[in-house]
Design brief:
CATH class of the largest domain: Alpha Beta
CATH architecture of the largest domain: 3-Layer(aba) Sandwich
Keywords: Lyase, Pyridoxal phosphate
Structural class: alpha/beta
Strand order of the largest sheet: 1-7-6-5-4-2-3
Order of helices and strands: HHHHEHEHEEHEEEHHHEHEHEEEH
Pathway: Amino-acid biosynthesis; L-methionine biosynthesis via de novo pathway; L-homocysteine from L-cystathionine: step 1/1
Modified residues (N6-(pyridoxal phosphate)lysine): 205
Number of helices: 13
Oligomer: single chain
Bound molecules: pyridoxal-5'-phosphate
CATH superfamily of the largest domain: Type I PLP-dependent aspartate aminotransferase-like (Major domain)
Enzyme class: lyase
Cofactor: pyridoxal 5'-phosphate
């Protein structure tokens, strides 16, 4: 089945749609049974889409899980109330005191904080590695290394990783390969074709796509699915059927949204590349982006999120650049239909295994579904304000 068709049909099993187009919103804590046999049957089939108790998920959760497994691949998908909960619980399901994990230096900041502030206290140590390490990951693997965690492209700085090479080496040492696949969104990167064991998404971003729900997913191969599923259940992870309904609705337009985000972002990035104020474009589809060759080899496309580095300005002078924008709002998120922007003056403070060389601020944009020319006009005025501030 082709991708577009899968996006339309994923999770729409008759069992859950019952004669209409979309699965219903089934709200429940208690699931009731009329006989001992019926109850025993439900318990025996609890891993087979039969409702037992609300925390194990209702039909809305089964439909969404099924849809995500269909998009990402793998054997099953565990659901969490946020992307961060998906990351922390997926890691927690596979480590014990004394273990070691390898974490990419460009991981989402809360992922790093979890390693430093929670795993460290539990006796699980973390070594950060250069996202472009490739086959040299082998030199960092220890006797007790359990997980190699990737995020590609990296948060903020967008380095694309050589996922198959890192996965191959990690597997030779019996490590589990986990990937934060939020940017790939289950569409532009197919994690299980490149050796990933567990693919995690902040569904909050492109899956939901409308900036109104927090949600996380972790999809696993046959080998790791039972342990991931059972641990998530033991940790009490569950999600609201109303949120899942919105996420299911988001999936139906995911393909067309991403295509338009990609087209708009390419137009804006191409315009930015010619601006005298721009040092470099950190967009995976641009040669200037570290790891661009892996993007070309492994990805099916891009989306609306990328960064660029300025060749002038500082923490103070980017204020007028950002403050006067009308289509871009500032926000710590992305993946919705609207444009967002973030100015980061001290990228280096977010890294420990690599050194950030750029002298001037980095700007991260999420290019939304507005007309790209309106966005360019907005940015053009912002550059004029920046130049004015720098000249003073
Ligand atoms: C936003 C984000 C997360 C966390 O998702 P939440 O739903 O906000 O907890 C994780 N990874 C990446 C790459 C993100 O952008």
């Amino acid at each position: 089945m082709k991708q577009e068709t899968k996006i339309v049909t994923a999770g729409r099993n008759d069992k859950w749609t019952k004669g209409v187009v979309n699965p219903s919103v089934t709200r429940a804590s208690t699931v009731v049974f009329n006989s001992v046999d019926e109850m025993n049957h439900a318990v025996a089939n609890r891993f087979n889409d039969t409702m037992v108790y609300g925390r194990r998920g209702t039909t809305t959760a089964f439909a969404f899980s099924d849809a995500m497994t269909s998009l990402e691949g793998g054997a099953g998908c565990a659901l969490y109330p946020s992307g961060t909960a998906a990351i922390t619980n997926a890691i927690l399901a596979f480590v014990k005191s004394g273990d070691h994990i390898l974490m990419v230096d460009t991981a989402y900041e809360p992922t790093r904080d979890y390693c430093d502030k929670i795993l460290a206290n539990m006796g699980v140590t973390t070594t950060y590695y250069d996202p472009l390490i490739g086959a040299d990951i082998e030199s960092l693997i220890q006797e007790n290394t359990r997980i190699v965690f990737l995020e590609s492209p990296g948060s903020i700085t967008m380095e694309v990783q050589d996922v198959p090479t890192i996965s191959h080496i990690a597997h030779q040492h019996n490590c589990i390969v986990m990937l934060d696949n939020t940017w790939g969104a289950g569409i532009n990167f197919k994690p299980f074709d490149y050796g990933v064991d567990i693919s995690i998404q902040a569904a909050t971003k492109y899956i939901v796509g409308h900036s109104d729900v927090m949600l996380g997913t972790a999809t696993a191969t046959e080998k790791y699915w039972p342990q991931l599923r059972d641990n998530s259940y033991l940790m009490g992870q569950c999600t609201s059927p109303d949120d899942l309904y919105l996420a299911l609705r988001g999936i139906r337009t995911l393909g067309v949204r991403l295509k338009q985000h990609q087209e708009n972002a390419m137009k804006v990035a191409t315009w930015l590349a010619d601006r005298p104020e721009v040092e470099t474009i950190l967009h995976p589809a641009f040669e200037s982006c570290p790891g661009h060759e892996f993007f070309k080899r492994d990805f099916n496309g891009s989306n609306g999120l990328f960064s660029f580095v300025l060749n002038r300005g500082d923490k103070q002078t980017i204020k007028p650049f950002l403050d006067g924008l009308s289509h871009f709002k500032m926000g710590y998120s992305w993946g919705g239909f609207e444009s967002l922007i973030l100015g980061i003056a001290n990228v280096g403070s977010l890294r420990s295994a690599t050194t950030w060389q750029a002298e001037h601020p980095l700007i991260r944009v999420h290019i939304g579904l507005e007309n790209a020319d309106d966005l360019i006009e907005d940015l053009e005025k912002a550059f004029a304000r920046l130049n004015n501030a720098v000249a003073q």
